[in-house]
UniProtKB/TrEMBL annotation:
Similarity comment: family membership: Belongs to the cytochrome P450 family.
InterPro entries hit by this protein: Cyt_P450, Cyt_P450_B, Cyt_P450_sf
CDD domains: CYP107-like
Organism whose genome encodes this protein: Streptomyces atroolivaceus
Entries under SUPFAM superfamilies matching the protein: Cytochrome P450
Protein name: Cytochrome P450
PANTHER family registered for this protein in UniProt: CYTOCHROME P450 YJIB-RELATED, P450, PUTATIVE (EUROFUNG)-RELATED
Pfam families: p450
Length: 401
């Protein structure tokens, strides 16, 4: 795997031409595997002999993984993404009430108001920048970050730092010292946030989690609290940030598809689903481990192997999505659904919120700036330095009305 990231689609196509499952070399010369094909990935994500708990990670258990390994947090953080069975159900039940369909709809007016305010800010930034502004910085980032932090109860003073640290934690090209420092600082910031909510509880998720811990100490340990906050903040804003960014890029490059939406030939929900399939916000997500030697699509994945879920590859798998899988088509509808928000017990809990935020953001962005266009060619946009997140680091646009 290329630790510097970049656009994954050409490499994905080459790998898919050889099969749905492939061996990969992770940073640090760690041997792993990736599941790329849609059908194979769907089976793998829900397989009863596949675990998330790092006690099944053979190389980690044997001491072969260094403390500064850039992907170690994905394996060792204590929370829903590394729990199985009853532990996973316990942790998920503590958080799930904040992401029900009813709760998401209650958040809609706040999302709409924040969107309007951020569009005003984007307009001002463009006016100050000779007509050009970074849509990612001024719009696609502060919207989901503001919403998830408000939901959690994280004060605004921490937002920028938490985003920076999230980027460091999901990066795959950083050295051991940087990786250790980023994780240590993230824990420090989140511990400060948790302490503030302990002293001054409110109507927010962190306060509810702390109350659950104090009411019954074995329901949520201190490391699980910090781990839950870390994964909720990272997943709760990075995925939606990439989704909005990738959708804007896709629509600017496919004006005919934008015209279809404007004319009623497709919905903004269709745009979101096609973006999730065509340019998944997450490219390869670490890790799952077979608890026995597992044969998948004719390939053996040895017990204890760290396996990447190849969402960006599965989204363009021609065997599942047809010969035109590489084409961005908002009228695609029906047929095989994408897997970009997961499948099985670990399906993304925040999916309803991400979909709502993205549809509100895109519909209001293009209503306000119908002639919005990229300010630089797509090929010149700086990519994420990670094979986990799939997007660009900046999105300069001309927000024309």
């Amino acid at each position: 795997m290329d630790p510097s990231g970049g656009c994954p689609h050409a490499a994905n196509a080459r790998l898919l031409s050889r099969g749905a499952v492939t061996a990969v070399v992770l940073p640090g010369e760690v041997e792993g595997m990736a599941v790329l094909g849609h059908d194979a990935l769907r089976e793998f994500l829900a397989h009863p002999d596949v675990a998330k708990d790092a006690k099944h990670f053979a190389a980690l258990r044997s001491g072969a993984i260094a403390d500064g390994w850039p992907l170690k947090t994905f394996a060792t953080v204590q929370g829903m993404t590394t729990a199985d069975g009853a532990d996973h159900r316990r942790l998920r039940s503590l958080v799930s009430k904040a992401f029900t369909a009813r709760r998401v709809e209650e958040l809609r007016p706040r999302v709409e108001a924040l969107t309007t305010s951020l569009l005003d800010g984007l307009d001002r930034a463009a006016t100050a920048g000779d007509g050009v502004a970074d849509l990612r910085e001024h719009f696609a980032l502060p919207l989901p970050m503001g919403v998830i932090c408000e939901l959690l109860g994280v004060d605004a003073e921490h937002h920028d730092r938490l985003h920076h640290l999230s980027n460091r934690i999901v990066a795959t090209d950083i050295g051991p010292a940087e990786a250790v420092a980023a994780n240590r600082e993230m824990v420090e910031v989140l511990s400060t946030v948790a302490a503030a909510r302990t002293d001054d509880p409110g109507d927010d998720l962190i306060s509810a989690l702390i109350a659950a811990r104090e009411a019954n100490g074995d329901r949520l340990g201190p490391h699980e609290l910090i781990g839950t906050l870390m994964l909720t903040i990272i997943a709760g804003h990075e995925t939606t940030l990439n989704l909005i960014t990738n959708a804007v890029r896709a629509l600017c490059a496919h004006r005919d598809q934008l015209d279809l939406v404007r004319s009623g030939g497709a919905s903004w929900g269709d745009v979101v689903e096609e973006t999730l399939r065509w340019d998944s916000p997450v490219s390869y997500f670490p890790f799952r481990y077979p608890t026995r030697d597992l044969t998948l699509d004719g390939t053996v994945i040895p017990k204890g192997t760290p396996v990447l879920a190849g969402y960006s590859a599965a989204g363009r798998d021609k065997k599942a999505h047809g010969p035109a899988a590489d084409r961005f088509d908002v009228t695609r509808g029906g047929g095989t659904r994408h897997l970009s928000l997961g499948h099985g017990a670990h399906y993304c809990m925040g999916a309803p919120l991400a979909r709502m935020e993205s549809t509100v953001a895109l519909s209001r962005l293009f209503a306000r700036f119908p002639d919005l266009e990229l300010a630089v060619p797509e090929a010149e946009l700086p990519r994420h330095a990670s094979f986990v997140g799939n997007s660009v680091q900046a999105l300069p646009v001309r927000p024309r009305g």
